[in-house]
Amino acid sequence: MAGIDRVEIRKLAKRYGSERALAGVTLDLAAGSMCALLGHNGAGKTTLLGIVSTLVRQTGGTVAYRSNGAEVTGAAVRREIGMLAHASLCYGELTARENLALIAGLYEVDGSAAALDGALDRVGLDRKAWDRAARTYSRGMLQRLALARALLTRPSLLLLDEPFTGLDRDGALSLGRQLGALRDAGAIVVVVTHDLEAIADRADHVAILRRGQLVFEERGAYTYEQLKDVYHRHAN
Amino acid sequence: MALLRHAARVAWKDLRIELRSREIVYTMAFFGGAVPGMLWVAIALAGTIGLGRAFDRERENDTMRALLLAPVPRLAVFLGKAIATTVLVLAVAVVCAPMLAWLLDAPLFAYPGPLVLVVVLGAVGIAVIGSVFAATLLKVRSRDVLLPVILYPLLVPLFVAGTSSTSAQVAEFPNLDAAWYWIEFLGIYDSAFLVLSVWVFESLVIE
Amino acid sequence: MKKLAVPLLAVLAAIGLAVSVYLVFYDAPLEYSRNAELQLNGSSLFFNQKIVYFHVGHAFWLFGAVFVSGLSSIAFLKTRNPRWDDIASASTDVAVAFGAVVLFTGSVWAKAAWDVWWKWEPRLTMSLLLWLILVGYVLVRRFAGPSADRIASGMAIFGMVVVPFVYVMVGEGNSHPQAAPGLNPSEGVVGKISPGMRPALWLSVASFLCWYVALLISRVQSTRAERELRELRERGFDLGVLS
Fold first, then answer.
1. Bridge partners, A83 (sequence order)
2. Residue range C161-186: average pLDDT?
3. Which tens digits make up the pLDDT trace of C86-103?
4. Do A79 and B66 touch (CB under 8 A)?
5. Is domain A6-88+155-234 given the CATH code 3.90.1150.10 in the classification?
6. Where are the domains positioned within chain A?
7. Is the pLDDT of residue C184 over 80?
């Protein structure tokens, strides 16, 4: 399979009991684009990301994943998803290498020492830390490991939930650069974040949610100032 | 320092006497409904601890999300967690059972076959039902309170069957028919809940 | 028709209950126990025996409600349509109330028959266990946060499946001689009961069915109305009419 090149979100709705999280969101995500999903806490960003990542089930509407026009479903969708969140999604008791080996096994990708080391090298994780338990890592190191983990499976749909929190300015900007490179390589990148600086000049698609509804959507490049402006005009 | 030394001396004396007379153990045995009761109380405890260990770890860095995201059948995640929990519960039982038999001079191993079988079935049942609900409760704040509230009423038949079978085996006049009857009961109970869990696990863990 | 359902069922239940009370006290014969111990207590049992009719009526639909709740929960998990969850939740609420009546009447019976307020008698034990599961369900709904509906559904489904096991489990205890009292509040009542008692019993079972359905519908309606109100409020916020 060539990877997911299009995600069609149609009238997506989600209720938790009587609590409304999403109220009919329609959005298209295309290969080679980076969508910044913005909004206040509780606006529905994480829920939207959760549904797209198949870990939350909607109560209304549909999400279709397409690859060359054909619909992809089930485990094949999960195969293409790379997730990077505030939590590292890595086991603290395992070393960096062991964490990656586990993922390589579950995704049935090349788990050879060379492949794993290459992945760790690419994110710039200090070699001395590779065989140390991940719980001894600093926040920055952990986030590098998390990125290595997410990229190991060569995902075509990258979902990022507040990936910049806890990183220092350099770390955040470097992660932003890496995400930009992935987008240029043809991936669909979706970033949920409050850190407008880290995604400024990189995001080429901005969607703003407010109280479960899509209140602003536009494609194009944005500077930090422009992002701040549309955010304040629409998110409140 | 002298104070601590003397305190230790007093405590050690108490423990030594206790060990020699084994009285407290007998008292506990009495309240636990004798040997089978104690064994199953230990297994129930092991179940709670095992589930806690197996699932708290998945919460730490949100790794459960990583497992559920993997392109493997979600059933595999469920079975993996249930197997790990079963092994943890059995490990406790393996330590507990000989200790109980020795401390209480009970013929716990009079019929090793049925005993092993009933303990394994018990551990499997606890692990299967426990894994389903521990996984669903993973993100709920009051999970530590809610898990026992949900789990124990559902597990009562398992504990009653387990205790009954063990009692029948260690009784003065062992009743193997009764022991096997309850093992059969446990087997059906486990199978029913395994099928049910496999069927609903994915719908339950997906928010 | 829909609006009439609840009052109609309630009236039916009331009439049925009135008639069955008449039948219970003026028509149904008193069952004299075959058990010596009970005969000694006969005087206190004389009147208390009448409680059986209400005990059984509630116990019947306690189990009915548990199955309704379990099946609706399956439908909810598979479709995620909140209407199913409304039914499951309402049915469990009613089941908790019915279970409380079952336990209370059972306890009154135990006091009369054995002079204790509680006895680990099979059917009572079973009702208690089931009731604990139901109370757990209510607690989960109340305290499990945004995912409460999903977790509670799982509990209702597992609770439904555990019922037959509890039944077999207590049934086995029942076959021991010391646990076989002559006439139990619910032990095989329908089968063993003398023919003269049957009309009153069945009528009370039917009345409580009407009562259960009436409670269920009105509970579902109130939950639904609550949600509709919420949705209207949300629309008001969306349109800027409310703030």
1. A159
2. 58
3. 899 999 999 999 889 888
4. no
5. no
6. 6-88+155-234
7. no
Interface check for A211 against chain C (CB to CB < 8 A): the answer is yes
**Number of domains forming the structure of chain B:** 1
User: Is B16 among the domain residues?
Assistant: no
The pLDDT tens digits of the residues spanning B5-52 come to 777 777 776 666 666 666 555 555 454 456 777 788 888 888 888 888
Tell me the nearest-neighbour CA distance from B146 into chain C, angstroms: 7
Rounded to whole angstroms, what are the CA distances from A159 to A76, A78, A80, A104, A187?
Answer: 16, 11, 11, 19, 10
| Per-residue DSSP letter, C28 | S
d(CA A61, CA A43): 18
Domain boundaries, chain C: 7-239
How close does chain A come to C238, measured CA to CA in Å? 8
Report chain C residues whose CB lies below 8 A from the CB of B149. 136, 139-140
pLDDT at B16: 67
Q: What percent of chain C has pLDDT over 90?
A: 13
Residue B186 belongs to a domain: yes
Q: What is the DSSP letter of B138?
A: T
Among A79, A83, A91, whose Cβ lies nearest the Cβ of B61?
A: A91
Determine the structural domain holding residue B56 and report its residue range: 22-205
Task: Fill in the DSSP letter of residue C23.
Answer: I
Total count of residues recorded for chain A: 236
Please report the pLDDT score of residue B202 as a whole number.
87
- Residue A9's nearest CA partner among A175, A235, A222, A209 is A209
Q: Nearest by CB to C154, which of B132, B164, B188? A: B132
Q: B193 vs C144: CB contact, 8 Å cut-off?
A: no
CB pair distance less than 8 Å for B149 and C139: yes
Is residue B69 assigned to a domain? yes
Q: Do C234 and A20 touch (CB under 8 A)?
A: yes
For residue B8, being part of any structural domain is answered with no
Query: pLDDT tens digits for C3-35?
Result: 777 788 788 878 877 777 777 666 666 555 444
